[in-house]
Recover the amino acids of this structure.
């Protein structure tokens, strides 16, 4: 059927085309005019209309006799258009995700470049101070002479850092450099009252022998972190868990949780001081008592503020 239709359309086009050309020639010779156009242009328009007529007949015959053509024209094309629109909508979230990934990649590239820069600094000399390292810690209480206190803190920090960076050059003074705005901010905050802790930190890596060290201060409120007798962390264990080979790891884990907890309370102390022989206490308690469950508690032995040492003991309770 398809081949017959194609042959018919070819023959039809071949028959109508000479007719259109002949009609255009006749109109041209007859000097016929449409819409006041010149006869030559009128003949051209008639030829064009004839060509369009051929195309219209061809499409009409295809629609009339070819079911496949009707399927493609009236069903497949609208379906494909709808599918294309839905695909475009589905691509929007993917495009947004792509943008987010590109931002992450750019951030990672910046971090990588920073890391390369740090490695280059490490390789270029003897690094004695790392960027972000706390160089000096001091306590400050709000008072009318706060500027004098800050100057004394600066001088003490300067002497301490100088011994690390250039211990052989005793004549060098004031190697610490920090922004005037930082000092003004500290004065503004501390003027409101209360007790404070100043952390002086390195702004860059420092090599041995450098003449200047760029620093920045960090201000923390010197508040109570722990109270004497407070149970900081506790955990319940079965008697079988407290075998000798496990005791050491259990204590380390409890102290690690204790350190994490006091860090959340903004303590700047990195180490915990312990009192007593924890392992001996646990073993002695297990010998005396035959209970199956025990609670181990880490207890603070003193009131501790933000920068104060943390001193603890372990208490074992039978359940």
């Amino acid at each position: 059927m398809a081949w017959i239709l194609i042959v018919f359309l070819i023959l039809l086009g071949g028959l109508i085309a000479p007719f259109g050309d002949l009609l255009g020639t006749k109109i041209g010779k007859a000097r016929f005019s449409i819409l006041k156009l010149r006869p030559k242009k009128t003949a051209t328009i008639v030829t064009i209309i004839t060509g369009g007529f051929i195309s219209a007949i061809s499409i009409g015959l295809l629609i009339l006799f070819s079911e496949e053509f009707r399927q493609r024209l009236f069903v497949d094309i609208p379906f494909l258009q709808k599918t294309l629109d839905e695909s475009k909508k589905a691509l929007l979230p993917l495009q947004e995700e792509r943008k987010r990934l590109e931002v992450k990649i750019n951030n990672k590239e910046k971090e990588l470049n920073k890391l390369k820069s740090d490695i280059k600094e490490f390789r270029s000399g003897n690094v004695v101070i790392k960027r972000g390292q706390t160089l000096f810690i001091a306590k400050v209480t709000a008072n009318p002479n706060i500027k004098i206190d800050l100057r004394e803190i600066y001088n003490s920090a300067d002497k301490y850092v100088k011994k690390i960076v250039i211990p052989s050059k005793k004549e060098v003074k004031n190697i610490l450099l920090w922004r005037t705005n930082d000092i003004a901010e500290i004065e503004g905050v501390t003027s409101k009252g209360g007790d404070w802790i100043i952390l002086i930190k390195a702004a860059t890596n420092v090599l041995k022998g450098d003449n200047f060290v760029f620093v920045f201060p960090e201000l923390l409120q010197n508040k109570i972190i722990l109270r004497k007798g407070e149970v900081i962390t506790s955990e319940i264990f079965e008697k079988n868990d407290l075998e000798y080979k496990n005791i050491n790891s259990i204590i380390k884990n409890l102290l690690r949780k204790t350190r994490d907890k006091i860090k959340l309370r903004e303590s700047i102390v990195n180490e915990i001081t312990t009192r007593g022989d924890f392992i001996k206490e646990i073993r002695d308690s297990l010998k005396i008592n035959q209970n199956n469950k025990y609670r181990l508690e880490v207890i603070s032995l003193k009131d501790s503020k933000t920068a104060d040492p943390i001193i603890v003991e372990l208490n074992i309770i039978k359940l």
